[in-house]
Structures are given as C-alpha cells and as structure tokens.
Design a protein that fits this description.
Layout: H1 3-10, E1 22-24, E2 53-58, E3 66-72, E4 77-83, H2 89-96, E5 115-121, E6 124-127, E7 136-142, E8 148-154, E9 160-167, E10 170-173, E11 187-192, E12 198-202, E13 205-210, E14 213-216, E15 224-228, E16 234-238, E17 241-246, E18 249-252, E19 261-267, E20 273-279, E21 283-290, E22 293-297, E23 306-310, E24 316-320, E25 323-328, E26 331-334, E27 347-353, E28 359-363, E29 366-372
Antiparallel strand pairs: 1-2, 2-29, 3-4, 4-5, 5-6, 7-8, 8-9, 9-10, 11-12, 12-13, 13-14, 15-16, 16-17, 17-18, 19-20, 20-21, 21-22, 23-24, 24-25, 25-26, 27-28, 28-29
C-alpha cells in the first residue's frame, strides 16, 4: 500500500474504541520501518508484509481499572492480569522480561494494589483467584489446553511469592525448591507446554514442575526458565546470560561484542528463542537465536527494544521506545501504525502472538487483541 493511501486513511476521524469494542483497521503497515545492520548480530532486512487487523479491547474484571494480557493461545484465549490500580510500564515489563541483573527486575510480583490473574476469550475476562493470605496474583503463561501459570504474592511483614497453575477451574500451588528460614518463598511460573510441563524459578534457580514435582535445572544463581516448547526445550537465563536447555543440558547463547548480559524470553517449536541482550549505556536490544546463531532485531528508529514472544512462523513481537512492535523477517513495524487517527488507543507492548498471527498485549486502554483480517 502506498504511503499516500496510508496517510489518507489515517486522516479519518471518529474511530473511538472503548474497552471490549471491536474496530476494523482499514490500512496496513504505515511507518515503523526497519534498518539494516545491528549491534553485534546479523540483522535481516526483508520487507514486512502488509497486514490489516481488527482491534479488540479487553475489559478488566468488574471493579478493576485496567488489564494486561501476557499470552494468547491458538484458540484465541488470553492469559491476563486485571488491576485495581493503573499498572505502570515498568511493572508490566518486570513480569514480561525477566531480564539480566543490571535492571534489577524480579520474578516476583511487587505492586501496591490488588491484581488478579485471569483467562479470557474475546473481550471477556474470568478471574482465576489466588490462594488465601495472598494479595495479588498474575498470569504469565498459557498453553493450548487453556492451562494458565503465574504466581501469587503476599505482602506486609514477610514478602513471599508462590508459583501457581490454574487448570480446569482448579488452582494448584506448585511446590518450591526451598523455603526461607521464616517459611517464605520466592517462586514464579512463566511457561507451560501442551503436555503440562511448567517452567519458572524457585529459590533463585531455574526449575521445572511436572506432575507436582519440582526439579532444578542445571544453573547457577539467578537461574530462571521462561519458556518451554512441545519438545521440552527450555529457554531462560542463568547468571545474567541467555541459556537454552535441551534434555536438561544447558547451552549458553552467544552475545554480540560489547554486550554484558541477556535473556532468552520466548521459544517456538523450531527451537528459535527470542529475547534481548544488554549494551552498557545503550539498553536492551531485541534478538533471536537459532542453531546457536544470534540475529539482532533493531527497534524503532534503529534503537533498543525487547522481544517478548515468537510464533511458529518466526514472527516476533515486543516493545520498542514504549510502543508495541512486530518483527517480520527481521524488519520492525510499530503496531500503532495500524491504528487510525482518533482510535483512542496507544499500544505500549505486544506480549504474545499465536500461530494465527493474533497479537495481544497492553495499551493505553488496557489489554488488547489484534486479529489479522484474511
């Protein structure tokens, strides 16, 4: 589509969108161009395909003010978190990018207001609840069986975080690898595959849970498993470095020259991991790893970004400069470029993508779904 047509369509007014409403986006891929080159890794430069989407706003739970979606499965169900207070981007990213120690992000949920994990299809959320004596729960991962994983936290006095699975209406507290002397624990679940193997962190180690049994993966301090695919390959972070585990054996993924840390955040069934590396005084830069090779994904204006999810086709979504973005064939596009003027939305972070190309995340009006129009 030409830039002239794109500008003309963006000039249309009157496309206000409330939470839960549906909007057909009338144009494709204006702005958000990619750049050749990279910060240490190879960078693909193929042209982004034109797309048209519908946008669905997802309303929070009754009485709450906002929601953020963290994952979408192939049936279009969302794992989300509903908030009684307006979440900040730093809090959202703390859950979504369990990153290297330089930014001090933690796997446990730390906020000063109530939140609740939720499951949805379309624009309706269903609260999943939280254990007694906890004040907040948060959803992080989802499989095609609609099993949701995440964590619940308690504050005041002793801070503790518990890894949770919500399965067929049941809430299951996952056992910790170890507890502290005061009985508290710091555990969180981040991913689950379709056979029900769960990955996350507990007692500062990367772990799996299977059939209610917790097992530590070979890792040092600061170990965290973030994603698992159908073959059981796992992506995560150990001692500030991106790692993949295959048959339980860890492999440290390469970083470009000058980078001091990184994290593998997402993984598809082709064993392609997506995440980021960190350059001092420059920030996080999105990337993928395939067969031990790093490919840099430049953000908007050639800048920094975080890759947060990847689908079977290798399409990557995340954020750059506070905007939700998609990388196709290595080229970045600002997802806000698909919004007509007057939509009432700013899309901040794209947190999940399924194999149908549906994208979900967090924006100015809360959680959203972008669905490709065939």
């Amino acid at each position: 589509m030409s830039s002239f047509v794109c500008r003309s369509l963006r000039a249309n007014k009157g496309f206000a969108l409330a939470s839960g409403a549906l909007l057909v986006l009338l144009f494709s891929g204006c702005g958000g161009g990619g750049n050749s080159g990279s910060n240490g890794g190879s960078n693909a430069t193929n042209t982004t395909q034109s797309r048209t989407y519908t946008l669905t706003g997802v309303a929070p739970l009754s009485g709450d003010v906002s929601a953020s979606a963290t994952a979408i499965n192939n049936a279009g169900f969302l794992a989300a978190t509903s908030y009684s207070g307006q979440p900040q981007m730093s809090a959202i990213l703390a859950r979504l990018v369990p990153a290297a120690p330089h930014v001090g992000r933690k796997p446990a949920i730390v906020n000063t207001y109530y939140s609740e994990a939720a499951l949805s299809t379309g624009s309706s959320l269903t609260g999943l609840g939280m254990p007694l004596n906890t004040t907040a729960s948060s959803a992080a991962g989802l499989n095609d069986e609609n099993d949701v994983v995440g964590s619940a936290a308690q504050y005041g006095g002793v801070t503790s975080a518990i890894a949770i699975e919500w399965q067929a209406g049941q809430m299951i507290e996952l056992p910790p690898l170890a507890t502290n002397a005061d009985g508290s624990q710091i555990s969180a679940a981040f991913g689950i595959n379709d056979v029900g193997t769960i990955v996350g962190t507990s007692a500062s180690a990367a772990v799996t849970w299977q059939n209610g049994i917790v097992t530590a993966l070979p890792s040092g301090q600061g170990g965290q498993a973030n994603a698992i695919n159908s073959a059981g390959v796992i992506a995560g972070i150990v001692d500030g470095m991106p790692v993949m585990w295959n048959n339980g054996l860890p492999t440290t993924l390469p970083l470009p020259s000058g980078a001091t840390s990184g994290a593998a955040v997402a993984l598809n069934d082709a064993d392609t991991a997506a995440g980021h590396y960190y350059l001092p005084n420059a920030g996080d830069y999105a990337c993928t790893w395939q067969n031990g090779k790093l490919t840099g994904l430049l953000g908007l204006s050639g800048g920094s970004g975080d890759a947060l999810a990847i689908n079977a086709a290798g399409t990557v979504v995340g954020q750059s400069n506070g905007h939700a973005v998609v990388w196709r064939n290595g080229k970045v596009t600002d997802l806000n470029s698909f919004l007509p003027s007057g939509s009432g939305w700013v899309l901040y972070s794209a947190n999940g993508i399924n194999d149908r190309g549906q994208i979900t995340g967090f924006g100015s009006n809360g959680a959203f779904i972008l669905t490709p129009v065939s």
